[in-house]
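If your schedule permits, I should be very grateful for your opinion on a structural question. I would ask you to consider whether the tokens describe a fold that such a sequence might reasonably adopt. Thank you for your consideration; the sequence and its tokens are set out here.
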Amino acid sequence: MKKTALIFIVILGLGACNVLDQDPQDSLDANMVLVDGASANSILNGVYSTMGSDYYYGVEYVLNMDLIADNSVFQGFYDSQLEIDQMTVPFTNLFVTESWPVIYRVINSANLLIEGVPSLDDPNFSNENDVLGQAYGLRALAFFDLLRVFGEHYIPNSSFGLPLLLQPIPENDFNQIPNIPRSTVAQTYAQINEDLDLALSFLTESLDQGTMNYYAALALRARVALYQKNYAVAKAAADEIIADGGFELLDDLDELYYTTEITGETIFDLEFNDQDQSSFNSYTIRRDEYNLDERLINATEAGDKRAAYYGFSRNANRILKYTDGTNANNTKVFRLAEIYLIRAEADAMLSGNPNSGLADINTIRQRADLAPIQSLPSMDAFVNALLQERRVELAFEGHRFFDLVRFDKTGAVMGIPDFRKIFPIPRNELQVAEPGILAQNPGYETL
């Protein structure tokens, strides 16, 4: 008989410090234990709730990647966003300090499910594979998101990957959190891809677009492969999503942005409502921390109907993708338009032919009422066309900075030194780690 797993769930938070912080004030609610299918599903729901934190997919992880680049501009009052906009992020920055523990909370909760679900003895647990698949997929996403911000993801042989927390914290006792050294970038990617292999093997029947479903895991595989320049894998994943996923590009962009619901273009939305709110509307419409940068307006071609989602109010340019006044707009974690652009990039990079990716780029352009690009003279011209399309199509959805890093454009576009392609490890982490265990990112050691 299987043994019942009595594993405590980390749902309520690590407080204002980080995953390696051992301060007793960060002890969590240990009342919920993993004993059956119902508790497993409750724990999984808690993972999605944690992902909705303002410091993760609730707003900041998404919008900060446009703010630090050339899509968004700070005209508000919060120091954290000012530091990001000025591209001088210190290791005391609030987003740096808070996003690290929040994302590790997601990882730790996934670890609890990964370790505990296979041991459950519950004949009524009908979605065990789905829960496991989501846990593996969400852990892969969380590790990847941490790597993109805090690890040298663009240097395959870099030693500056992540601390890979792969076991649940024993008995929910944060005095037992291990001091975990950083793995290499290659080791971190290997863990992400291993998790994705397992997620895809378990998620064969999962199609819920409000969760980490099969096609969401496949979209993550495509995105990760693109970052690794494993273009064959990226193309194969994108091909499957486009051919078999049943998703559609919406002709009417109002149906994509002026809604609080899942759409036909959605692969995975993190869902919010008027009770369980995101903060996108608060920050893009009511406040001024993430205003629309004139450089994006000027870069948008004449006649591009996506410009209809640029507005002006209260003396500032604003993005109009998050207009619901109750903050019920979802986070678009994966949608079909990105997959077309992933396939375009993979096609061109695989073949070395700048025109082999144009069909998919033109699919996105034509939806925006733009004329198709007939041909491109060089791979440099293709990269510029790709980045232009990704910049406008995915604006304020969390991609711009990462795209500039991937193509080594941060110096030319942003004027920053190479070490600022990633953010610093939070000061809190460095203070509680044993000496020599957790290395600061290069360039930040003396700042």
Remarks:
- DSSP finds 17 helices and six strands in the chain.
